[in-house]
Amino acid sequence: xxxxxxxxxxxxxxxxxxxxxxxxxxxxxxxxxxxxxxxxxxxxxxxxxxxxxxxxxxxxxxxxxxxxxxxxxxxxxxxxxxxxxxxxxxxxxxxxxxxxxxxxxxxxxxxxxxxxxxxxxxxxxxxxxxxxxxxxxxxxxxxxxxxxxxxxxxxxxxxxxxxxxxxxxxxxxxxxxxxxxxxxxxxxxxxxxxxxxxxxxxxxxxxxxxxxxx
Length: 214
Hints:
Elements: E1 3-6, E2 22-26, H1 29-36, E3 42-45, H2 52-60, E4 64-67, H3 76-86, E5 92-95, H4 102-110, E6 122-126, E7 129-135, E8 138-143, E9 149-165, E10 174-176, E11 186-187, E12 192-197, E13 199-207
Parallel strand pairs: 1-2, 1-5, 2-3, 3-4, 5-6
Antiparallel strand pairs: 6-7, 7-13, 8-12, 9-10, 9-11, 9-12, 9-13
């Protein structure tokens, strides 16, 4: 089962839902759903971004509202991701998670690195951009169109043992140093490419020249 989570940031492009998708709104992300004529299966958060009337509309349409206290340890998006993982969702697509606040954006970019999400494929989608996290010992397949821009950014220290296929500037058991921009603005040569990593963490960003299929 695939889950689609809509957060409370700017929504630059509506999600392309498939039959059977689990649609989850992280608090104010439910307002995006209402504007798009969508009914989330679940709305989760402290509900500080929604009015009582909006909540009534969501509940009357069949949405399940899961309230958390305002003084909580986790963001609404992390709660939504945890709910999706516990429901058995994989992969998970996250929309409207970037751009409104830098603190929230940085935290959301790193959320897929949390230990509880280690076995789940999570993609953050923002307009023409898709962001995924690659852990040491894993491989990742990237899809798009020839000419799409691909950037590999090490986080949590240096990333080593990087091997790529299908990118203009290839790496064979190479390394990217934390804080360096060497991995920025590579190019997809065909519709697919792959990246494997032996040790470290990489944020993998694809800028699509055409609208992404997700």
